Amino acid sequence: MTPPISTQRSPDPAVSLDERLLAGAAHLAFLGGFWLVAPLAILVLMRKQSRYVAFHAMQATLLAIAMVPIAIGAWMLAILAQIAGVVFLGEEGASYLFVGLFLLTSIGPALAVAMVGIVAGIRALRGKTWSVPFVGRIARNALAAP
Fold it and tell me: Is residue 74 part of a domain?
């Protein structure tokens, strides 16, 4: 009988503690307010020295960049809901609708990206390579290009 295939990758013995710390810092930098600057700086400084750090820094940078159109879309949805609310519900009903949609559209995507960043940061600190959905493939292709 064949043993089950593990979907968890074990830590790469070639990945040093410094590399794990830099990769984790790239993902967790948003907790300190450095959502784009830190991963981009780590990517630029470490791209040639470590594929592991470069991959995680590229993923964190792409996640940070992806938050901009997500946030703009969320705000546009909230504004359109406000306009539709005024037309269909009157001013008082529209304000409640706007507050509810504003909270949902601003907090929801930010929480989702924060959770993905925390999971990716913890896995990077443990020395495991985790490809963030959608972003991981783009990062891998970008780093493979000369």
Answer: yes
Question: How many domains are contained in the chain?
Answer: 1
Residue 65 falls inside a structural domain: yes
Instruction: Determine, yes or no, domain membership for 95.
Output: yes
112-137 residue pLDDT tens: 888 999 999 999 999 998 898 889 99
User: Residues 31-53: what's their mean pLDDT?
Assistant: 91
pTM of the model: 0.77
Instruction: Yes or no: say if 34 and 110 are a contact pair by the CB < 8 Å rule.
Output: no
* Count of other CB atoms within 10 angstroms of residue 16: 14
Q: What is the dihedral of CA 131, 38, 42, 135, to 10 degrees?
A: 20
User: Which residues constitute the domain of residue 39?
Assistant: 17-144
CA distances to 61, 68, 80 from 102, in Å? 25, 16, 11
